[in-house]
Amino acid sequence: MTPMTDWITAPGLTDYDEALTFMEARVAAIHSGEADELVWLVEHPPLYTAGTSAKPEDLLQARFPVHAVGRGGQYTYHGPGQRVVYVMLDLNRRGRDVRAFVQKLEDWVIAALAEFGLKGEIREGRVGVWIARPDKPALFDGTPREDKIAAIGVKLRKWVSFHGIAINVEPDLSHYGGIVPCGISGHGVTSLVDLGLPVGMGDLDLALRRGFDRAFG
């Protein structure tokens, strides 16, 4: 039977350390059977996080607080205008397959973007969801330019997931200038509003909610 999954949308900006503490407790409760799964939708104040593969040289300028965390991946940015989706699901009941789980996360984001007429894509060797930018000049080696619109970084504890996805709705994209996002140079970052779409946070939340059962049901 498919587990019950709660949804919570946090008001305002959520302190990052408080979010980590909350997730730790919820993951433990899910594993022990004391709580249902949870999709937690938040926004954070401006900050950088360093995943387990982060390289010191990719922190170009510590403009904002830097948090070393145990999720997979390298440096990324969180801030107002970005929807962070913390996904606490019990893979003991959904199949202990990390690769399949990450692919479901990617497919979920791609389906949500498709509701706004965007074609999100994944690339071998580059985690996250990307948007082709034929309107921008190619890279120096002729590679077509692509911009990242969503980052993915997860952690598992006793096969319960936490951390998750960050999707750019309307963040200040200049804030990415302090890091090499996910260790990838050349390609840039974008957002729904940067792409000319009048999409608000609530619109994205509804698209994610509609697509969740299709991705994970």
Characterize the structure shown.
Strands 1, 2, 6, 7, 8, 9, 10 and 11 form an 8-stranded mixed beta sheet that branches. The chain has a 3-stranded mixed beta sheet with strand order 4-3-5, with no helix packed on it. The protein is built from 4 helices and 11 strands. The protein has helices at residues 16-32, 91-94, 98-114, 201-216; strands at residues 5-9, 37-42, 47-50, 66-68, 75-78, 82-88, 121-123, 126-132, 146-157, 160-168, 188-189. The protein is 25% helix and 29% strand. The longest helix is centred in the N-terminal third of the chain and has 17 residues, at 16-32. It starts with a strand and ends with a helix. The relative contact order is 0.19. It is α/β, with parallel strands linked by helices. α3 (98-114) packs across α4 (201-216).
Features:
217 residues; 25% helix; alpha/beta; eight-stranded mixed sheet; 4 helices
Structure summarized in a few sentences:
The protein has helices at 16-32, 91-94, 98-114, 201-216; strands spanning 5-9, 37-42, 47-50, 66-68, 75-78, 82-88, 121-123, 126-132, 146-157, 160-168, 188-189. It has 217 residues and is an alpha/beta fold. Helix 1 links the parallel strand 1 and strand 2.
SSE topology:
Blueprint lengths: L4 E5 L6 H17 L4 E6 L4 E4 L15 E3 L6 E4 L3 E7 L2 H4 L3 H17 L6 E3 L2 E7 L13 E12 L2 E9 L19 E2 L11 H16 L1
Parallel strand pairs: 1-2, 3-4, 9-11
Antiparallel strand pairs: 2-6, 3-5, 6-10, 7-8, 8-9, 9-10
Helix pairs in contact: 3-4
